[in-house]
Amino acid sequence: MDSWTVSSALLLAGVISSAAFSHFDTECYTANGEDYRGLQNQTSLSGGKPCLFWNETFQHPYNTLKYPNGEGGLGKHNYCRNPDGDVQPWCYIADHEDGIYWRYCDIPTCQMPGNLGCFRDSGDPPTLSGTSETSNKLTIQNCISFCRKQRYKLAGMESGYACFCGNEVDLRDHGESPSMECNHVCFGDHTQPCGGDGWVIIFDTRVGACGGNYSSPSEVIYSPDFPDKYGAGRVCYWTIQVPGSSAILFNFTFFDISDQTDMVELLDGYTNQVLARFDWRSPPRELVNITGDFVILYFYSDRTNQAQGFALLYQALRSQDTRVIEDEGNEEDETDDVSSTAGPQLAVWTIYALAALLILTVIAMVAKLLLHITVKSPNIPTVSGSDSCSQSTASSEPWIILYRPSTISLFKKKLKNHHGDLSPLVGN
Ligand SMILES: *[C@@H]1O[C@H](CO)[C@@H](O)[C@H](O)[C@H]1NC(C)=O
Ligand SMILES: *[C@@H]1O[C@H](CO)[C@@H](O)[C@H](O)[C@H]1NC(C)=O
Ligand SMILES: *[C@@H]1O[C@H](CO)[C@@H](O)[C@H](O)[C@H]1NC(C)=O
Ligand SMILES: *[C@@H]1O[C@H](CO)[C@@H](O)[C@H](O)[C@H]1NC(C)=O
Ligand SMILES: *[C@@H]1O[C@H](CO)[C@@H](O)[C@H](O)[C@H]1NC(C)=O
């Protein structure tokens, strides 16, 4: 809280608590609504187009003939779904406009916890005013990790390639029908939404953190690196301690662990006794009820077979006491992965490495000097030598020019028209 003004802290508090309240309203826990199984059957609640029935869209790549077993949530209905790993649920519509026969659905109840929403960004000043970067490999978690490492509480993505960090956001910058404005694909992962032009999609940086301390009565915790696949060799602990609660209920709303050694465990916070273990073979099937007020959540992944991970919703059952518990200390640190004894060792190795680098540099300089003297050709002007060298390394064009947002939308249309078979469902 050091550098915050009181008012900005209040703004942030407003955002965070409103997000917390929406946990139980949401019908989606994945970033792109792949898990949406709700009943919206038109593209928008106000003046949207009616959706076609999936059991009647045989001229299109997605229908119940091709996916008869409910894959992707398809069935004898006309609800919005996301069977092809797009950035948002969608459906086919009857009228063809410019050869487009499908539309995204604007579903207010489909927003993953930790996604604080889509905000207008005039850029002057930017909606999130901290550090920023651009990357043609941007994913939601790339950006979140970038901001989290610098201890920001919020991370925002814009236009598919830009990442902004900050600690506060003004709720009034929320637009009219914003989810439709923030569905440009992330350049690093075409199944994730990364904002839009002049619109920034903002996430809590606790999403996908490897570890954390939770004390509020109810929260959602995501596996490390979510919504990307969890990384290799992840070992993460989260503490969930809610003073005054008699039991804590865990609802895994989403579980995808890919091999037997990767696992999730729930431990008693006081005795460290393992109370439940879940993996590929034994996924959690119902609510897990843990008595007490202190639970440790543990995640382990080996070097192979990464997968999407999990989303869990916990809820503390309170005894009589109903005092409000401040949600604090949820800071997370990537260095959790390194054991504490590695600290001094790391420093020693850093010194060795720097010394080695210095020696190598000197050798290289001497070698270059010798080479220069012996092979220097008379027709190369000595003055321009170093200049042209530095020019050529800097000559690569800014990639932003290559990735205009218009190219993205063209690609997306093509994707559903011609490459419908490249679906994640086909693999199943
Ligand atoms: C959408 O569903 C509602 C009820 O769930 C139904 O009344 C309505 O007719 C449906 N609309 C379309 C276009 O199918
Ligand atoms: C598709 O399913 C709906 C709802 O069950 C049904 O009313 C309709 O007749 C079905 N269409 C076909 C072509 O089977
Ligand atoms: C778990 O949470 C989901 C989403 O909030 C809810 O639909 C489901 O009913 C819950 N499961 C149980 C067993 O309470
Ligand atoms: C969970 O366990 C506690 C105490 O053991 C009990 O009071 C509560 O009713 C249980 N809740 C559920 C949903 O099973
Ligand atoms: C959680 O709290 C423990 C002890 O209070 C602390 O050592 C640890 O660093 C905290 N973890 C995070 C991720 O903040």
UniProtKB/TrEMBL annotation:
Keywords: Disulfide bond, Glycoprotein, Kringle, Membrane, Signal, Transmembrane, Transmembrane helix, Wnt signaling pathway. Residues 112-206 form the WSC domain. The chain crosses the membrane at residues 346-371. Residues 1-20 form the signal peptide. It is a single-pass type I membrane protein. InterPro entries: CUB_dom (IPR000859), Kremen_rcpt (IPR051836), Kringle (IPR000001), Kringle-like (IPR013806), Kringle_CS (IPR018056), Kringle_sf (IPR038178), Sperma_CUB_dom_sf (IPR035914), WSC_carb-bd (IPR002889). The keyword Transmembrane helix applies. Pfam families: CUB (PF00431), Kringle (PF00051), WSC (PF01822). GO terms for biological process: Wnt signaling pathway. Residues 210-317 form the CUB domain. It is found in: Membrane. Residues 27-110 form the Kringle domain. GO terms for cellular component: plasma membrane. PANTHER family: KREMEN PROTEIN, KRINGLE-CONTAINING PROTEIN MARKING THE EYE AND THE NOSE. This is Kringle-containing protein marking the eye and the nose.
